[in-house]
Amino acid sequence: MISRFLLLLAFFFALFFTGCSSSQLETWHTVKLTEEYRGDDTDEVQSFADYLELEDRLFEELDEKVYSTVGTGPEFALHRYSRGSASDPDTFSFNYNRTFELDADEPRGAVLLIHGMSDSPYSLAAIGHLLHADGYQVLGLRVPGHGTAPAALTRARWQDMAAAVELAMEHLTEEVAAKPVHIIGYSHGAALALNQALDALDDPDRVAPDSLVLISPAIGIARAAALAGTAATVSRVPGFSGLRFTTIMPEFDPFRYNSFPTNGGTQTHKLTRQVASRIARLESSGRGHEMPPVLVIKSTVDATVSNDAMIDALLGRLPDNGHELIVFDINRVAGAMSVLVSNPAPFTQRLAD
What we know:
The protein has helices spanning 2-18, 27-30, 48-65, 125-133, 150-153, 158-176, 188-202, 228-234, 262-284, 307-312, 334-337, 345-352, and strands spanning 100-102, 110-114, 137-141, 181-186, 211-215, 245-247, 260-261, 294-299, 324-328. By secondary structure, it is α/β, with parallel strands linked by helices. The protein has a 7-stranded mixed sheet, with helices on both faces. The chain has a two-stranded antiparallel sheet with strand order 6-7. Strand 8, helix 10 and strand 9 (324-328) form a beta-alpha-beta unit. Helix 6 (158-176) crosses helix 7 (188-202) and helix 8 crosses helix 9.
């Protein structure tokens, strides 16, 4: 009880001191992008084609409100929002902050790629190109709140991301007709993939994936993430806007936010709790066998998502239906142990048993 009180006390002291850091916020931390997709905006966006048209307008708005405000030249050589810099995503062969689709003439099936929190379609693009070379129609989805400016993620909701996934699945199903459609999700994207599969089990009008590949799936995350919602609420108080971010850093990565919005942790926490509770209900109702085959690829050393939750909240609750688990580790030598969040040996032993 005392330790919990001390944790809360430390948390609110951190709120007080970090709340004064709003002076560090730049345009890309505060800009309001009005052309971002919201799942309840069914009048304007009724199809995936509509989603892409809105995305075009979103990036035009980003250019007007952010890129046009940042200078150019040697002092901005590694600035993501400086036109022509080494970190300008538009200087690459393709701006993988945006949704991309790789068409196949006679596809074997289709694959939807869903990136993780604060990431972009870039994170799974290499996998997408390999699958396309093997004959698959591939769609790398930019989920709402991502690929533009960190400020966008301060307002995004997981429900908007889930609605975008459904639009993408409907599109792929139309593209490949009766052929299988698979989902590969990374971290938060894996939770969105599971959410889509669960939605399809509850609603026959939703598109069901034929299989799921989950890379480092966010099934359970650190308990501290539950406090992120409190910080996000306090950030609305004048003078505490710095609390919108757990980390504020220069933006030099072309395809990932370096500054991490508090709301990102909040949305992942809400989504993972939702998915875990639905899987538990699926098990208790005796319908676990209805889940499509799931392949999980996971490291035993992970500082972000819970290893045990992968067993307790997912695979351990599903009957054998072709599910598989690939676990990898690092070479655990004495010199490396000091940088590990925890000793992975107990979890590895649990899997072996």
